[in-house]
Amino acid sequence: MPAALRSARTLRWSVFLLLAVAGLFYVKWFPYYGRAFDAAAQHSIGKSILMGDASSAPDPSLAAALGYALAYGKAIWKAMVLGLLLGSGVQALIPASWVRRAMGSASFAGTVAGGLMGIPGMMCTCCAAPVVVGLRRQQAAAGPSVAFWLANTMLNPATLVFTGFVLGWNWTLLRVVLSVPMVFGLGYLANRFAPAQGPLPVGRRRAEPEPDIEDPSLADVGRRWLTVFLRMTLRLIPEYIVIVLLLGAARAWMFPHIGPDIGEQWFWIVALAVAGMLFVIPTAGEVPIVQAMLALGMGVGPAAALLLTLPPVSLPSMAMLGRSLPWRLLLTLAAAVVVFGILAGAIASGLDMR
């Protein structure tokens, strides 16, 4: 390889790694490090973004929609920008041939690799979605991509620590025990629904990966990165905002009055498992939500269901991935997450984990 091309490739890799490390340090690692000490000292990481200290969410209205969207946006906007930068950077800076080698295998080992790569990201499900879009565009297999997506939320080391200090380490253990098969089991299952080079539905065209660029011109690489970034932003963000607004308005329907009347009955566990899967929250937002609901007297079964279903998927994140993963797979993942939530609720209720 000519020296100029080798230097250009090294520079692109360096820029991407610097962005990933510096971005995650600024947005995730450093803030969560300090937040862990607060959780240990105060046994709290803040108020529930869902309803604050109230026992019910505000009635459906434009004000409720805007209020939640603004609170949620304030919590995640830095991570969303980073996710878009990384998702576009994967396409503009990283050769597709490398992505195929690292995450193109439909084997269980490939799925494990994808999951392990997702753990340091510690993104919420929506902020991780643009990265998954970029990986899929560069021909990452479905299994590693899904494992990467789910690991960001379910095996997030900071959230596991917050859960232990705020709710109790038995809750962290429950989460880990169920999150490992969720991340790697559902990731491996994804390969059965979306083979690496399997047929696409009628009318769908396979997205071509961004070509491996060997041009040493930094200006060309920068223009390409900006183009991909803007394209992703314009395609993903408008529908995302609309769905977040609708969910913010519908909180009162999805999460009724919280109190002792929501006990260990199976229908409450199922109902809140479904609501948690659909709803969208920032990273670790499930911890204060569950803490607040338990304080209001809600049963441990529904609370455990929410702990397992609020983080991994949401209606907005599935919409963002609708062109990168088959909808049949996304709906299967959503149903499986609900099943994991119901299982968590049954275990917590049976063990009386309050």
Mean pLDDT: 91
Give the overall form. globular
Secondary structure category: mainly alpha
Distance between the terminal alpha carbons, to the nearest Å?
Answer: 62 Å
Q: SSE order in H/E notation?
A: HHHHHHHHHHHHHHH
Largest sheet: none
Based on DSSP secondary structure assignment, what is the total number of beta strands? 0
Radius of gyration over all CA atoms, rounded = 20 Å
Please render the helix and strand layout as text.
Layout: H1 3-42, H2 62-93, H3 96-103, H4 108-118, H5 125-137, H6 142-154, H7 157-166, H8 169-193, H9 218-249, H10 251-254, H11 266-278, H12 286-295, H13 300-309, H14 315-320, H15 327-351
Helix pairs in contact: 1-2, 1-7, 2-5, 2-9, 4-6, 4-8, 5-6, 6-8, 7-8, 8-15, 11-13, 11-15, 12-13, 13-15
Attribute tags:
0% strand, 71% helix, mainly alpha, 354 residues
3D architecture notes:
The chain is globular, with a radius of gyration of 20 Å. Helix 12 (286-295) packs antiparallel against helix 13 (300-309) and helix 13 packs antiparallel against helix 15. It is 71% helix and 0% strand. The chain has 354 residues and is mainly α. The protein starts with a helix and ends with a helix. The protein contains 15 helices and no strands. It has one domain.
In short:
By secondary structure, the chain is an all-alpha fold.
